[in-house]
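Narrative of accomplishments. A recurring question from our advisory board has been how the design workflow behaves on a single, concrete structure rather than in aggregate. To address it, we present the structure tokens for one chain from the evaluation set, followed by the sequence designed for it. No filtering or post-editing was applied between the two.
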């Protein structure tokens, strides 16, 4: 046994062989985090951790020149002769001394403007030098929280994985990733293979530290990771920034470096503040020390985001390449104040890789076998940045806690607290969990499932369900029953369902369901139940029109190939007309009162829009996401889509088996959607939809093609799916049909350039909509409006002025809604 311990100790101690290590401080003795440390004339190295400690891997003894580089400090070169390892090298860096002595400032031209223009003009030339490369990538993410609330809306917030101290402060997330990345500039392609990944306190070890997500290229016109902020060297940067040359200094190789301060023309624009460092004559980025705010990235919960980048000169290609990057964040939301940093190291660049046609595929992320199961010995040999004492403690603490929290005893004790039945549970609902066996039983109370319509009156629903997770790869099943009761109708409508899913790769899912339920005549559900409840009870506007369906249904869906989704269902149903049973409302009775439940004639309270009948429905559909990119995790596939191409959906629906052959029909429907990021110029979206029946027949009203209308001032809108001023059941057809929705959000591209108005940080939005049916005249809408309305950080409102035209009739109006874009 002693020999085992000796060999283990010998092995662990051997991992320190071949290392230069030490601590980096400033003149005041304060530790300097994230200092780049590398061998002279290379782009391979490491960085210091938050305590200023570093470890530089050196293979053999000899003479070396070690370079210490940190934005804001003078680059330091240390020549060392190493005879044995580990070699201790502590250094002190001095703040950079910048001056303007060597710059002749002209009254006609700002020298900073000249420098930035040269950088913009040289972008393609500089980035072409490393148009293709492979590299090693290391990232570390750390999130802390201070004074975390114990409860949120009356519910315990827990201990965030066990890392909090007595003041409820500490590390709540710590992760590391080491991967190999492959990049091609034209056409732009990126691939990452994760060699090792770990998350403190978690078994699966899958972190959020994707290399592509952190690939912040300031040479691009807009920075997508930061919600399309305008780069300081964007092609139209002078529309957003002013520049001031703060000073100059020489780097380790005698290159003149210009330090330029960014002065946003408008503080609310999508811009950075801070400094950017430019190499004279090369007109390349040497470094960046930037900051932006939540208002500028349009994420209200963010206080600040800080970006630091360090570049190094690669002799073999004559270019400045990114070697280190960090992103600091500070967030405030509902009393929670997390903050932290993600650090990234790029090393071992190969600028002359050999690519084949199989190098890049739609799989942009994959994991090596057992990448999430590497032990501490492996990480100690691999990790380019040493852990701080705090990080070491967090790993040890949470690894020990993890073992405890996986035990049956702990999970049962946790469930015992959470499974207590409260006083309000009969109304709000209740869930009983068996966490150790990954199963639960839930009761959905009537309070949150109540509503009102003129057919059912006040109604509510009780539900019971069971869920069981069968493995960690996405296999599970659940079953349940719901009981809807209408107080005015005095009628109970039960439904049931059973669903099983087999995995998280192709996500095959089977559902069997049935029972009695009420549905809208328009199967696209244009009216939200909450909207109808409010408008009916307070304004006597009962826009919702429903019928009853008693049915049995089988549905199946799966991603049969990357980007190709298949879905189908078979249903047999009895469809029954319904009529108003109540005239109740909080509002006073007016002359007109409620309308009938007949969408074809709101004044007819005795005749229905259709006669009762039985019918079967077969639907077969596919959705094609062209060029869909995906991430292959150890236990699942995550699709990320591709905005360069549209998403296409095709459906064939056959209705058959009715005693009345006129009700049988065959229908084809196609949808095309796309969301295009226009960078500095905003965001453009479109949705095209078309349908056609094989034969024009007198089918049931709910089977006809219908458009989504809107008759509310404050609608809850489905994204690019409805018309702003169209009556709900005005346009329908049993023939051919098409609709078009276009919208462009200019963000700050237009209003941001108008004096005074730009201080409001409103975004201009313009759109157009059109509806065509074979048996009706066209309907068109044009709109212009403002988004990003609100106060302080909370800017979720949007207002539009809409002009509509149909059949020679013009209509105009305003529409308000909540919007995140």
């Amino acid at each position: 046994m002693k020999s085992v311990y000796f060999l283990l100790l010998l092995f662990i101690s051997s991992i320190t062989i071949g290392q230069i290590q030490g601590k980096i401080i400033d003149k005041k003795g304060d530790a300097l985090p994230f200092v780049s440390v590398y061998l002279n004339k290379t782009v391979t190295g490491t960085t210091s951790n938050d305590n200023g400690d570093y470890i530089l891997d050196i293979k053999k003894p000899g003479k070396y020149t070690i370079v210490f580089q940190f934005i804001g400090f003078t680059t330091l070169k240390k020549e060392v002769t190493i005879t044995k390892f580990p070699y201790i090298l502590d250094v002190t860096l001095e703040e950079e001394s910048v001056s303007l002595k060597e710059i002749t400032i002209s009254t006609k031209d700002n020298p900073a403007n000249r420098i930035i223009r040269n950088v913009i003009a040289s972008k393609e030339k500089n980035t072409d030098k490393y148009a293709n490369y492979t590299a090693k990538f290391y990232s570390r993410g750390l999130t802390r929280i201070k004074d975390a609330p114990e409860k949120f809306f009356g519910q315990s917030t827990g201990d965030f994985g066990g890392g909090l101290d007595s003041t409820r402060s500490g590390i709540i997330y710590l992760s590391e990733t080491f991967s190999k990345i492959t990049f091609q500039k034209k056409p732009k392609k990126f691939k990452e293979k994760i060699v090792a990944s770990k998350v403190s306190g978690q078994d699966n070890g899958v972190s959020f530290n994707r290399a592509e997500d952190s690939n912040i290229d300031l040479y691009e016109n807009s920075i997508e990771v930061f919600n399309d902020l305008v780069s300081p060297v964007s092609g139209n940067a002078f529309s957003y920034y002013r520049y001031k040359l703060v000073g100059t200094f020489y780097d380790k190789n005698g290159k003149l470096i210009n330090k330029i301060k960014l002065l946003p023309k408008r503080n609310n624009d999508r811009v950075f503040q801070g400094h950017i460092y430019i190499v004279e004559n090369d007109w390349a980025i040497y470094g960046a020390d930037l900051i932006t705010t939540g208002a500028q990235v349009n994420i209200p919960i963010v206080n600040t985001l800080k970006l630091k980048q360090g570049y190094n000169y690669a002799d073999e290609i004559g270019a400045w390449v990114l070697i280190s990057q960090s992103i600091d964040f500070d967030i405030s939301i509902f009393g929670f104040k997390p903050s932290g940093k993600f650090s990234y190291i790029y090393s071992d660049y190969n600028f002359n890789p050999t690519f084949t046609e199989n190098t890049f595929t739609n799989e942009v992320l994959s994991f090596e076998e057992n990448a999430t199961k590497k032990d501490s010995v492996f990480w100690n040999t691999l990790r380019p940045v040493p852990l701080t004492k705090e990080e070491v403690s967090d790993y040890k603490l949470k690894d020990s806690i993890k073992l405890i929290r996986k035990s049956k005893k702990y999970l049962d004790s946790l469930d015992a607290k959470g499974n207590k039945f409260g006083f309000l549970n009969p109304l709000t609902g209740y869930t009983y969990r068996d966490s150790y066996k990954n199963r639960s039983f839930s009761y959905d109370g009537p309070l949150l499932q109540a509503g009102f319509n003129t057919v059912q009156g006040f109604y509510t629903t009780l539900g019971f369900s069971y869920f069981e997770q069968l493995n960690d790869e996405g296999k599970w099943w659940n079953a349940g029953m719901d009981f809807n009761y209408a107080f005015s109708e005095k009628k109970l409508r039960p439904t049931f369902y059973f669903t099983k899913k087999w995995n998280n790769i192709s996500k095959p899912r089977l559902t069997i369901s049935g029972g009695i339920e009420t549905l809208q005549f328009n199967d696209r559900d244009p009216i939200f139940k909450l909207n109808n409840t409010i408008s009916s009870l307070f304004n006597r506007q009962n826009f919702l029109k429903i019928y009853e369906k008693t049915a049995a249904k089988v549905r199946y869906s799966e991603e049969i190939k990357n980007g190709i989704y298949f879905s189908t269902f078979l249903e047999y149903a009895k469809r029954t007309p319904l009529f108003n049973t109540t005239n109740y409302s909080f509002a006073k009775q007016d002359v007109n009162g409620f309308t009938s439940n007949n969408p074809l004639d709101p004044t007819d309270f005795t005749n229905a829009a259709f006669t009762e009948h039985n019918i079967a429905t077969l639907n077969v559909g596919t959705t094609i996401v062209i060029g869909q990119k995906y991430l292959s995790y150890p236990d699942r596939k995550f699709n990320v889509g591709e905005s360069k191409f549209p998403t296409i959906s095709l459906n064939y629906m056959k209705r058959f088996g009715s005693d009345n052959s006129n009700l049988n029909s065959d229908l084809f429907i196609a949808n095309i959607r796309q969301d295009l990021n226009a960078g500095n110029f905003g965001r453009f979206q479109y949705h095209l939809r078309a349908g056609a029946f094989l034969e024009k027949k007198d089918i049931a009203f709910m089977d006809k093609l219908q458009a989504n209308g809107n008759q509310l001032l404050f609608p809850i809108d489905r994204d690019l799916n409805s018309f702003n001023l169209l009556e709900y059941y005005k346009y329908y057809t049993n023939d051919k049909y098409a609709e078009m929705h276009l919208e462009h959000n200019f963000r700050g591209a237009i209003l941001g350039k108008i004096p005074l108005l730009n201080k409001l940080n409103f975004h201009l939005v313009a759109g157009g909509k059109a509806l065509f049916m074979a048996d009706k005249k066209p309907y068109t809408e044009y709109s212009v409006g403002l988004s990003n309305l609100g106060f302080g950080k909370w800017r979720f409102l949007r207002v539009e002025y809409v002009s509509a035209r149909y059949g020679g009739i013009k209509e105009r109006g305003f529409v308000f809604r909540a919007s995140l874009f």
